[in-house]
Design brief:
Layout lengths: L40 E3 L5 H14 L2 E5 L5 H16 L2 H7 L9 E4 L14 E6 L17 H26 L16 E7 L11 E4 L5 E6 L6 E5 L2 E4 L7 E5 L1 H6 L9 E3 L7 E8 L6 E2 L17 E2 H11 L10
Parallel strand pairs: 1-2
Antiparallel strand pairs: 2-10, 3-4, 4-5, 5-12, 6-11, 7-10, 7-12, 8-9, 8-11, 13-14
């Protein structure tokens, strides 16, 4: 692992190793950018609840992404969580590996590149720490204990993010005409948190921090480090840069929500680029169902003129497809 982590060797190279060089059609230097477009920003403390719901549904249909402000998560907690993850990634390699290797089943883990089982055409310029963070507190015994305060701070953060995620899903449920608690229970009981570290890259035009993909979950809430624009959303043939907004969360629809809404809400494709001057950190909170939860189009959204376009599968089956096949898994799922 120590030889694989990008953070352990990136500063020893003046060029990108060949295994990290993307094919020409994937390179960010060759991409079309929509710099005149931005993803919507939604104030969760807005006065008109109906207007908030309309904005969320419209953004989810058109972009699959939006940013939320006034979400209720204390800024100090967000700052401390970002700090603790930065301190983790700055620890010596052997210490990082030891702190992230306590789970005998490998659910708490440190990895590099995509973390998927399938080999991609090139590796990705990123190290990631991932572990479950269910509301029950299960798995916390396998979380890192270093840096000091990790479990307490990250535990509080994931509890707050769960509250925000369920609030947004409740608003989405209302907008789709479903029970406001539709996503409570098994559709949101197995969240995970991932801390991504993207070290400076000597040739950002040749490589990527993350490939073009859709998230294989219900909903993602991402905190971006300020003043570093690297996340891009694909829409209408071009990439829209997602500018960080202070103390905002980027929210994107996962592919499971696309299935549940029978294609009405889109799990938008997105990717991450790198830069040569500054390392970047993000915190991703994934709202995940339990492995046995059935993912299928909601029957109340179907009709003779709107039949199901996706089959019924468990989340475990869908996630296995994604881990084994990568972004290509979606094409095989349509009925």
């Amino acid at each position: 692992m120590d030889r694989k982590l990008v953070s352990s060797w990136y500063n020893l190279h003046s060029s990108v190793p060949s295994s990290y060089v993307q094919p020409p059609e994937r390179r960010p230097g060759n991409a079309v950018l929509a710099t005149n477009k931005t993803i919507p920003v939604i104030d969760l403390e807005g006065i008109d609840r109906a207007d908030i719901i309309r904005s969320i549904i419209k953004s989810s249909e058109e972009y699959g992404f939006f940013q939320v402000i006034n979400h209720g998560v204390p800024k100090l907690l967000v700052d401390n969580t970002l700090r603790i993850f930065k301190e983790f990634h700055a620890m010596p390699v052997d210490e990082k590996v030891r702190e992230s290797s306590k789970d005998p089943n490998g659910r708490c883990k440190l990895y590099t590149s995509s973390g998927r089982n399938c080999e991609d055409v090139a590796k990705y310029w990123k190290d990631s720490l991932q572990h479950p963070c269910p509301p029950s507190g299960e798995f916390m015994e396998y979380w890192p204990e270093k840096p000091t305060g990790y479990r307490e701070i990250v535990g509080k953060y994931t509890q707050e993010l769960r509250t925000v995620g369920l609030k947004i899903l409740g608003l989405i449920s209302e907008g789709l005409g479903l029970n406001p608690n539709y996503f409570s229970g098994e559709l949101s009981e197995s969240p995970i948190v991932i801390s991504h570290h993207y070290p400076p890259c000597p040739e950002p035009s040749l490589t990527l921090g993350a490939s073009r993909h859709k998230d294989p979950n219900i909903l993602t809430l991402l905190y971006q480090e300020a003043e570093i624009t690297a996340l891009q959303v694909f829409k209408d043939g071009a990439w829209i840069p997602v500018e960080p907004i202070p103390n905002a969360f980027v929210v994107n629809m996962g592919f499971m929500l696309q299935i549940i809404s029978n294609g009405r809400l889109i799990g938008a494709e997105h990717r991450v680029i790198t830069n040569s001057s500054t390392g970047r950190h993000t915190i991703a909170y994934f709202v995940n169902p339990t492995k046995d939860a059935l993912i299928e189009p909601v029957k109340s959204l179907l009709s003779a003129t709107s039949p199901p376009i996706y089959p019924s599968m468990t989340f475990g089956q869908l996630l296995e497809n994604f881990m084994n096949k990568g972004p290509a898994f979606e094409a095989e799922l349509h009925i």
